[in-house]
Amino acid sequence: MRQRVDLDWGNLGFSYLRTPWRFQAEHRDGAWSEGGLVADATITVEEGACALHYAQQCFEGLKAFTTPEDRSVLFRPLENARRMADSARRLLMPPPPEELFLHAVRECVRANEAYMPPHGLGAALYVRPLLIGVGDNLGLRPAPRYLLRVFCSPVGPYFKGGMKAIRLRVSRHDRVAPQGTGAFKVGGNYAGGLLATAEAKAAGYDEALYLDPIEHRWLEEAGSANVFGVLPPRARGGKARLVTPASDSILPSVTMASVLTLAAEDLGLEVERRRVAIDEVADFLEMGCTGTAAVITPVSVVHDGANDVQVGDGAAPGPVTRELYARLTGIQRGTLPDPRGWVVTV
Ligand code: PLP
Ligand code: COI
Fold it and tell me: Ligand nearest 254 Cα, by number?
C-alpha cells in the first residue's frame, strides 16, 4: 500500500483541499510548452488578462479512483480532453493537444498520489484542468498567451448524503442563450448560474433546474449535472425507458453518455434522447442527475415554477437508479469488469 496523508477519507465533501503539486503548460507564439509540475498554488496574471475581463477560459472535471489492488485509474479522460478542445475552439483559444492534456492529468495525479483516496470509502481524486487566456490586453480580442493548468483535490459526494435524493427547482433565469455557449464547459455559463443555484437553495432546494431558453417548456439540465428520467414500459411486461433531454445548449456529459450505454446495453432499457417537456416529470418513475461531481444523484422532487412535483412514489433512489449507480461506480472503481475500456491506468 502506498503512503497516504492522514485524512478522514470517508467523510470528505466536495470542497477544495490543496494538494502539493499542479501541472502547468503555456501557449505562446503559436506553440505549447512542454509544461511541468509546479508547487505554487497561485497563478499570477496580467491585470489585462482576457480570462479576467472577457471570461476567455474553459475548464474540465474528471476523477481518478483507487482500485482494490491500490492502482490509480482515470475514467474516460480522453472524453474530457476532447471536450476541452471543443470549448477552447469555441472561445478562440488554442486547444491543448490530447497528449498534452492526458500527460498533464497523469502527472498531476501521480505527483499527488499521497492524496489519492483509498479504495472502498466512496472518495475520489477530482482533477480540474483549466485553460485561461492571459497576457496584456484591453480590447475585445483573444488573449496573446494561454495557460493550461491542472490541479486536483480529494473529494467525497457533491450533494451531501451521496445517494440521498435531492430536490430541484426550475429557475426563472436561463442558463445560456439559444445558439450560445451552453454546450461548452466555459466559466461564463457557471457565473450566470450562481444566482439560480443560490435562489434554489434559499427556497429549500438543492440545485437549480433549467428549462430551454426559447419556450421555457423543455428540460435542459441542472446547474451542475445533466438529468434523466425513467418512464414506464410502453407495453405491459416491457422494459422501462430511460429518457434524457436532447438539446444543443446543455453540456454533453461524459457520465450521461456512460449511463445511456449501460442502460441500453447492460440493463436492456429503451433509451431515448429527445426533447422532454417539464410536464413529463409527473410521469417519471425515477429521476436522476449525472455528472463527474454528482455521479448519479437521485431526484425526488421538482418544483416546476408553480408546484412541487413528486417523482414516482417519492422513495428515491428507485431500482433503475440504484442499478446504474452500482454498475457505473463498480466500473470506475475497478470492482466490475470494464469491457469498453473506459478506465485507464494513471
Ligand atoms: N452539466 C453541467 C452544467 C456540468 O457542470 C457537468 C459537470 O461537468 C455536467 C453536466 C456533467 O458532465 P460530466 O458527466 O462530463 O462531468
Ligand atoms: C463536474 O462535475 O466535474 C463539474 O464540473 C461540475 C461543477 C459544478 C463541480
Answer: 1
337-345's contacts with Cβ under 8 Å and 24+ in sequence apart are 340/261, 342/75, 342/76, 342/258, 343/65, 343/73, 343/74, 343/75, 343/76, 344/73, 344/74, 344/76, 344/77, 345/71, 345/72, 345/73
Set of cell numbers at residue 63: 476523477
Cβ(255) to ligand 1 under 6 A?
yes
Q: Which residues line ligand 2 (CB under 6 A)?
A: 61, 224, 291-293
Coil, strand or helix at 119 = coil
What is the enclosing helix (H) or strand (E) of 201? helix 187-202
Helix, strand, coil percentages in the chain from 3-state DSSP, rounded to 5: 25, 30, 45
Instruction: Quick: pLDDT tens for 290-337.
Output: 999 999 999 999 999 999 999 998 887 999 999 999 999 999 999 999
Domains delineated in the chain: 9-155 (3.30.470.10), 166-332 (3.20.10.10)
Alpha-carbon gap, residue 144 to 48, rounded angstroms: 11
**Measured distance CA(162)–CA(157) in Å, rounded:** 5
Strands 145-155 and 343-345: unpaired
Predicted TM-score (pTM) of the model is 0.97
Write the residue with the smallest CA distance to atom 9 of ligand 1.
Answer: 225
